[in-house]
Amino acid sequence: MSGEIAEAFARAKARGEGALVAYAMAGDPDLARSVDVFAACVEGGADILEIGVAFSDPIADGPVIQAASERALKAGSTLKRVLDEVVPAVRARCPQTPLVVMTYVNVVMALGEERYAKLARERGVSGTILPDLPPEESAGLREAFDKEGLELIPLCAPTTSPARAERIVKDARGFVYCVSVAGVTGMRSELPANLSERLEMVRRSSPVPVVAGFGISNAEQARVVGAHADGVVVGSAIVRAAQADGPAAARQVCAEIKRGLKR
Amino acid sequence: MDTQTAPGRFGRYGGRYVPETLVPALLELEQAYAEARKDPAFDEQVAQVLREFVGRETPLTPARRLTEKWGGAEVWLKREDLAHTGAHKINNTIGQVLLARRMGKKRVIAETGAGQHGVATATACALFGLTCEVYMGALDVERQALNVFRMKALGATVRPVESGSRTLKDAMNEAMRVWVSQVEDTYYVIGSAAGPHPYPTIVRDFQSVIGREIRTQSLVAFGKLPDAIIACIGGGSNAIGALHPFLGDASVRLVGVEAGGHGLDSGQHGASLTLGTEGVLHGSRSLVLQDEHGQIIEAHSISAGLDYPGVGPELAHMAKTGRMEVRTATDDEALAAFYMVSRTEGILPALESSHAFARAGELARELGKGKYLVINCSGRGDKDVATIAARGMPPAIQEKA
Ligand SMILES: Cc1ncc(COP(=O)(O)O)c(C=O)c1O
Q: Which secondary-structure segment (H or E) carries A114?
């Protein structure tokens, strides 16, 4: 599975498209039905799936994903159950699509960093995003991940200086996640004017693909942002659609975004 | 003496586990604070405001009737209840708001549980003309109407937080999320010795005025350092403030008291040092109340200020290395201590402080005659009288009345 993420980006590029990284919450509304949502995202055109694992205190998330976390926790979602039940099921239904887990550092620590890395790889996870783990704190975890070939995907923010961004992306694995707005996850009507510049700047020093996320919810935004990135991450728009109208609505959101990513 | 083993690390604990968006702001804060500390004028400014506005130094009061009642060590009280706004929280907010002003920030946000830290932040902002917004769990907004009014009267905006358990930990999550969105012009005043580096260090330094005063006052009052100091622990700011200046004094026993809530085996308590496990909450690695899956468990205490599932990283380190002894007091024990102290000393202690009083009698007897015990009375109980009165006075207390 090593290199799966790189291959997914390459396939999208060969088709003349930006890649769509689709985020949904594992366990929302319950473990089984969230598998349908992930599969629907792939049907809608998602190139990579980001599997959200709920945490009780999600400081990087806006209201939509916070509420999804609460629903998932109520439905009994845990990192272990997501790895045992959701990941294999999604893999079975979408064998071509790389899976990336997104959760908070405490959830991984509780399972054990090495144990997580091993289990994640065994179940078919390619990468992991931990929004509350800046590079200064990630040394131990990286070691555990590298040993298993699990990719730790770093984040850049609008407040990150160019020098710091260079350090962050230098040894990035998988892709670099550029947070488009100084803020939490959620849909925005407007994205910052200097976003394209920042994306190009990060792209110049990054050895891996660069995606933009946070705030992107429609085809037009995807088109504008996608012109300066290798892909986009869409989360809240998918989570909200799935909650309101089920997997088909999530498929539609992905299809619409995908239209915006055609070059 | 410093237990800091690397920048922001206290043994295994501490660090800076926050979204990348905040890291540059924390680096900026760390730098600004280091510069402020090197500037004697900043120190003097803080000291002057503490003197002229807060009413420092606060007295070290002999508790003669408690001493007699317990029949052990001589008992003295450090009277943070006499600081302006009624608790130690003001020591930290004055320091941090002055730091915010020095950094050119005009807008301040804070989280609060019971409202004491919110009131203290609102007070400091009113004094220095900064805009203040306080995030408070919606449940706490209902429970702490008096402090909500005080904050509003002081010109602060109170923002109820509806997510999660609608209490302090959710207010802190929300304050962090808001800070992520407005980090350019906003200063976040954290209220306890918790949070990402450099906050645990900053809060400790500003609160250490308590312990430094205990040092000089005890030398004057009884000619030596205390043999033990006891303080309650929520996030840990009053405890670290009272205890930290004595870390290097091996003769001084340092004791912290956590919320035992309905009892340690009830699952409803705030005893993160006693029963917590290593984890990351609100930006630092420390001991936290969590389930086996890493989900944070809601804390419980009769006192809203101890109702927090985490604890400052330096205290976690002091507890693990054995430098600080950790005990717990239940809700009922704290209530009994509240009445007992009110009646024997004429002081209504805050319910938080009552936890320290609840364990102090045993400690006084353990120490024995000829020894000196200082209890940190972290705040006054006026804010709690409605909560306490609503429970009705226990019959045993009524009879004595
Ligand atoms: C009077 C008083 N004591 C103690 C505390 C607990 O906080 P800390 O452990 O940070 O001192 C509070 C918090 O609100 C308080 O108001």
A: helix A113-123
Residue B400: C-alpha distances to residues B125, B343, B394 (Å)? 44, 10, 10
Predicted-assembly ipTM surpassing the 0.85 threshold: yes
Give the model's pLDDT for residue B1.
45
**Predicted TM-score of the model (pTM):** 0.96
Residue B400: per-residue pLDDT = 54
Contact A106 B16 (CB under 8 A): no
B137 in contact with A at a CB cutoff of 8 Å? Answer: no
State the DSSP string of B199-237: HHHHHHHHHTHHHHHHHHHHHHHHSS--SEEEEE-SSSH
Mutation pick from A74, A141, A159 vs chain B, by most beta carbons of B within 10 Å, is A159
Mean pLDDT, contiguous 10-residue spans, chain B (401 residues): 73 97 96 98 98 98 98 98 98 98 97 95 98 96 92 98 92 95 95 98 98 98 98 98 98 98 97 98 98 97 94 98 98 98 98 98 98 98 93 75 43
Contacts of B138 (CB under 8 A, 6+ apart): B160, B161, B162, B166
Ligand 1: centre distance to CA B234 (Å): 6
Q: Which helix (H) or strand (E) holds A66?
A: helix A63-74
Assess whether B378 carries a catalytic annotation: yes
* Stretch (H or E) spanning A41: helix A31-43
B177–A136 CB contact, under 8 Å = no
Q: Is B276 left (phi over 0), alpha (psi -120 to 50) or beta?
A: beta
Distance CA(B241)–CA(B231), nearest Å, equals 10
CA distance B401 to B392: 13
Task: Evaluate the omega torsion of the peptide bond into residue A29 and state whether it is cis, within 30 degrees of 0.
Answer: yes
Question: Which distant-in-sequence residues (6+ apart) come within 8 Å of B204 by Cβ?
Answer: B193, B237, B240, B241, B244, B312, B314
